[in-house]
Design a protein that fits this description.
Layout lengths: L14 H4 L8 H15 L4 H45 L2 H5 L22
């Protein structure tokens, strides 16, 4: 007789699988909500409430998209500043890595008659 603990079982929970693979509200749920709203608010008030809800959702979408755009813009500014700082930090190291000195090259020696001495 095999018991519960005799076999290995994978324990997992998938929310999509638990409610039949549908979203949060299914069609029957929406119908029930509509009927309750119709009974509570009446047929005259329901279109006005739906219109108000639509306006509120539109305002919410605009506000969230504006907030997302502002956030993305600030994020791009921070990335540009980080790249600029990284570039600035690398620039002073380049001449030293090349083996060249940052001091100016000595001027060629001048001969008495105005010509310069070849190096």
């Amino acid at each position: 007789m095999a018991g519960w603990f005799d076999t290995s079982r994978v324990v997992s929970y998938d929310a999509e699988e638990a409610n039949g693979g549908m979203g949060i509200l299914s069609v029957p749920h929406l119908i029930i909500i509509f009927v309750v709203a119709l009974i509570v608010f009446g047929p005259q008030k329901l279109p006005e409430l739906a219109r108000s809800l639509g306006k509120i959702m539109g305002d919410f979408r605009r506000a969230t998209s504006e907030l997302r755009g502002t956030f993305d813009e600030h994020l791009r500014d921070l990335e540009r500043e980080a790249q600029l700082l990284d570039t600035r930090n690398r620039e002073p190291a380049k001449p030293a890595e090349a083996g060249g000195s940052t001091a100016a090259a000595p001027e060629p020696e001048k001969l008495p008659h105005g010509d310069t001495k070849p190096a």
